[in-house]
Specification:
Blueprint: H1 2-26, E1 44-45, H2 51-59, H3 63-71, E2 82-86, E3 89-92, H4 100-104, E4 108-111, E5 117-120, H5 123-126, H6 129-132, H7 136-139, H8 145-153, H9 157-160, E6 164-165, H10 166-184
Antiparallel strand pairs: 1-6, 2-3, 4-5
Helix pairs in contact: 2-10, 3-10
Length: 190
């Protein structure tokens, strides 16, 4: 399990670095304090991409409390990690452990029906002048959504392909990781 968690974290870090390089090359950037993508009510993710978060919560004896909070959020489908009470304003309360979807959205590509690269992004970024200037050469530098999700699937095919609303994906990750460590006899790492 530790190996799987480390592999996922390595992939998450790689995706974030790749997206940052593309941001720099494209000169595109989210407006300061935007976070509108976090407020969407229909974000889907896989439990696997939240294994590092679940392990972090477990190690810090916060998994049960966070799980209980998720249990009570049945009507609120906005990501449970989103906070209006962050030190730096509003945004992700667990930024270091955010999922793959969070690291790629806005700055990654997929292919259209003509096999042309297109950016998977929001209306805000589509409205900026830098977006209008994107060339096909620059788009080749962007992370590819399908490629990163295939890399995730190579770690655990079943869990990577389980698409759930984001809060349910986080909840499932906590269930799996906590159960493993609770019943395997493994001690909490510090």
């Amino acid at each position: 399990m530790i190996t799987k968690i480390r592999r996922v974290q390595k992939l998450l870090d790689e995706a974030a670095t790749h997206a940052q390089r593309f941001q720099k090359a494209s000169q595109m950037g989210c407006p300061s304090g935007c976070s509108l993508c976090c407020l969407k009510k229909d974000i889907f993710a896989s439990p696997l991409e939240f294994f590092p978060l679940a392990y972090h919560l477990y190690q810090n004896n916060k998994a049960d409390t966070f799980y209980d909070e998720l249990e009570q959020r049945t009507q609120n489908t906005i990501c449970a990690l989103f906070s209006t009470m962050n030190i730096s304003g509003w945004g992700c309360s667990q930024y270091e452990f955010r999922g793959l979807i969070c690291r790629l959205f806005g700055y990654s590509t997929t292919s259209d029906k003509n096999s042309q690269k297109r950016l998977v992004t929001c209306k805000t970024l589509k409205g900026c002048s830098e977006f209008q200037k994107l060339s096909s050469t620059t788009l080749l530098k962007a992370p590819s959504f399908p490629d990163y999700y295939m890399k995730l699937a190579s770690i655990d095919w079943q869990l990577a392909n389980e698409s759930l609303p984001i809060n349910q994906a986080i909840k499932r990750a906590i269930e799996i990781v906590s159960s493993y460590f609770d019943y395997s006899g493994s001690k909490r790492a510090g």
